[in-house]
Design brief:
Two copies of one chain form a homodimer. Chain A is an alpha/beta fold. Chain A folds into two domains: 79 residues, Winged helix-like DNA-binding domain superfamily/Winged helix DNA-binding domain (Arc Repressor Mutant, subunit A, Orthogonal Bundle); 112 residues, NAD(P)-binding Rossmann-like Domain (Rossmann fold, 3-Layer(aba) Sandwich), CATH 3.40.50. Helices cover 46% and strands 19% of the residues of chain A. The termini of chain A are far apart. The interface between A and B is large, with 63 and 63 residues.
């Protein structure tokens, strides 16, 4: 199945919708459903049936003629496509409010991510545990990344510190950076970066609000 | 200019990129630049020139033949399209880690949003101030929404409480809800909802990571 991602260019919008489908399919599986139509999925997700069909077919979700998508097979297809069938160990840098909020998010383990260490420079946080995750001093970053063989970093630090830390991460062999700092990071082409921009969601909300009131 | 949003259907992806363009244009304006090419914008944003051109033209950004986009006029076009030329008062419900992180985000005022009140039920938080914003008890919600005439809500509460609070908000005349709770909200068609799903960004990161390693 991993050939799917290599063969086809799946759109960002499709990829962003996959976790939402996955949650519905988990529920269906729990309730013992083995098949589901795109119309039923549309009622659950408020996404158009035609969009759902296209999204799921693009990642190779198995169907049964006229009866819709196979529940178990589609779960496997989505998990396989995203690599969520394995739990990837990750670490977080910056254990402030946003970092703590992410450490408190119980859903990550269903989404292939286990945050096993956090780093901060604030003496009030270093040595503490947040939701069961130990907070180390950032000075220990290199040692711990190497000893635990960590490849995925979550950055929740101020923008000014982000590029410097990123350079260190790249040097330590980190392969993916989930960046919540409000700066564009420069990395070699071999490193994946996902930039979160809180203002993007706000822009969407404002555009919707404007279209409703016009 | 507000006719632009009414006339054309601008894609979600375009809308989500607008804040990023806006930040670059603010910088250019500060440095005294009056014109900028899409090639220069591409170097700043890592977005393809053709995408930038299409995005900015779709919202009516003014151009000068062969010289690119007019800096001041494009700032006005984006701000006008998103309604960010006015500061909208908003309030936040749920002053936990994520709520506190949002209250600490200084960028909102540049993005048309001023959070003027926060609500929580935790006695340790009620009566406190977080980044200059007073935290009230959720029991005061109706009174304060009405007295301050607030129309925009930011929801950073657990999923189980979200629909109940939403029904109250709709009753109080709230017109837009920025929802960080991990549930789909039911609202009348007149109310705008923007659903943030932390797993969407993670899905993007994982898809990128997989494509780099395959």
């Amino acid at each position: 199945m991993s050939s799917v991602s290599a063969k086809k260019n799946i759109s960002t919008q499709t990829i962003r919708r996959l976790p939402q489908y996955l949650r519905v399919f988990y529920d269906l599986h729990e309730y013992g459903r083995s098949l589901v139509s795109s119309t039923d999925l549309a009622a659950e997700t408020h996404i158009l049936p035609i969009v759902i069909k296209k999204d799921l077919q693009s990642i190779g979700a198995p169907t049964k003629l006229r009866s819709g998508f196979k529940v178990k097979g589609t779960i496997e297809a989505i998990e396989d496509f995203l690599g969520w069938d394995n739990l990837n160990k990750a670490f977080l840098i910056g254990a402030g409010h946003l970092g703590a909020a992410l450490l408190g998010f119980s859903g990550f383990k269903n989404h292939g991510l286990e945050i096993v260490a956090a780093f901060d420079t604030n003496p009030e946080r270093v040595g503490q545990e947040i939701n069961g995750v130990a907070v180390y001093h950032t000075a220990q970053l290199k040692t711990i990344i190497k000893s635990k063989k960590l490849k995925i970093a979550v950055l929740t630090i101020p923008g000014a510190a982000a590029q410097g830390i990123t350079d260190t991460l790249v040097e330590c062999g980190v392969k993916a950076i989930w960046n919540f700092a409000p700066v564009k990071l420069s990395v070699p082409p071999s490193v994946a970066v996902q930039q979160e921009d809180i203002a993007s969601g706000l822009a969407e909300l404002c555009a919707k609000l404007k279209s409703k009131s016009s």
